[in-house]
Fold this protein.
Amino acid sequence: MKLTLNVSLSGKTAVITGAGGVICGYMAKVLAAAGANVAVLDINEAAAEKVADEIAAEGGTALAVGCDVLSADSLKEAHGLVTRAFGPCRILINGAGGNNPRATTDSEGFRPCQMGHEKTFFDIDKESWKFVFDLNFTGAFLTTQEFAADMLGEEPCNIINIASVNTFLPLTKIPAYAAAKEAVGNFTKWLATYFAETSIRVNAIAPGFLSTNQTQALFYEKDGVTPTARLNKIIEGTPMKRLGKPEELSGALLFLLDDEAASFITGAILPVDGGYTAYSGV
């Protein structure tokens, strides 16, 4: 893998959650290519193993760990495995997250005629809301609580949370996900302030709309070619007029992890979104 920035993470232990997925799986490969020993954490252990195997095939060092970020016991067990394999955590990326159809609405706005015919805000149950919110926010809280204790020394350490354009502008139809991602942004700033006099810097990356296998169903009709109405609105609202690619997150990731180039940066939320959060629509 060719890195976009010449940053050395040699010998550092990096823990990344949600790393069986497309975005964080790619980030795990970037960390390994920069020399880190990468703990690939995911609730889907088979997916984590696939990413770890791909890292090993490219000459990197990785350990796949099945882990539920909503379980303190699971996190503690994962922490022990990582420590025994690589030593204390120096880089933590809180990437586990996602949405669920049960916590979405069918329409962008409410009209009384929808009642009983469409899923409205009033039809979202507490359990569905809690699942999405916890997966995106509470998981980051619990994971940080478990691994940040490793970082309380003199060596520079980093926590990077994966935020979203929802951190700045809540998207329609996905209230729980949008609320959770705004909470992630606020939590990033809180942690940065709390740890400011230690060796820990805390920042976040806010990806925009990316083209991946996972977003195909959202962005294209069943023929796989025709853009959905939602994709058309996304492109119209993105000044660069295109979707991003997972690899376009690597520069932001490596920059924020560079303890020289980003030594005075903490509490920042860096959008990588083609200008989406900068555009007012007019």
Remarks:
- The chain has eight helices and seven strands.
